[in-house]
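2024-03-11 09:14:02 INFO worker-7 job=invfold-0412 stage=load source=structure_tokens
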């Protein structure tokens, strides 16, 4: 009834699956993610994502320690990182599997987007902890990683929005991204 996906560069905490199962059994939750930590630390790599503007997702809690983040209850997000994710079978039956057109990256975003459009909640379970050696498979190919990420964002927009949004993305993204990052840093 529940399908769990784990990347090959993850190590799960001993209670990870117990915490996920406890929460995902809620009838309106379709996908549950976890808190991803950097290996051998309590620093958050990902606590789920919220879309700030078209195809720019902000990582909730990134860079904070678990104590600083201090969330006890599950919370809704736009998408969870597919490195460690639990999906109800009924969600996959209703919205389909991961889209194979995405070659690494954004396939998790796409699945969560389709699940939310179908009326399911996507949540992060803060008591479910996974250590993630982020992009271990791509360390030797950083340019290819960047190109795939960019390509897949364009595919995501093309798939879910009108073609005018692609133009808005190409023209507006550099300006919005730069201004958003400057406001964050200053």
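2024-03-11 09:14:09 INFO worker-7 stage=emit residues=186
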């Amino acid at each position: 009834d529940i399908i769990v996906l784990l990347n090959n560069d993850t190590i799960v905490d001993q209670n990870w699956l117990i915490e996920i199962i406890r929460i995902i059994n809620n009838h309106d939750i379709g996908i549950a993610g976890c808190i991803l930590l950097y290996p051998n630390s309590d620093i958050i790599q990902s606590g789920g994502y919220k879309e700030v503007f078209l195809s720019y997702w902000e990582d909730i809690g990134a860079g904070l320690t678990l104590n600083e983040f201090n969330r006890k209850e599950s919370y809704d997000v736009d998408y969870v990182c597919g490195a460690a994710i639990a999906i109800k079978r009924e969600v996959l039956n209703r919205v389909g599997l991961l889209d194979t057109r995405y070659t690494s990256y954004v396939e998790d975003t796409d699945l969560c987007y389709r699940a939310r459009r179908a009326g399911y909640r996507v949540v992060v379970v803060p008591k479910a902890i996974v250590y993630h050696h982020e992009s271990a498979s791509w360390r030797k190919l950083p340019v290819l990683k960047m190109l795939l990420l960019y390509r897949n964002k364009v595919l995501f927009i093309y798939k879910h929005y009108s073609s005018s949004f692609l133009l808005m993305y190409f023209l507006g993204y550099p300006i919005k991204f730069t201004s958003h990052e400057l406001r964050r840093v200053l």
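2024-03-11 09:14:09 INFO worker-7 stage=report msg="The two ends are 47 Å apart (CA to CA)."
2024-03-11 09:14:10 INFO worker-7 job finished
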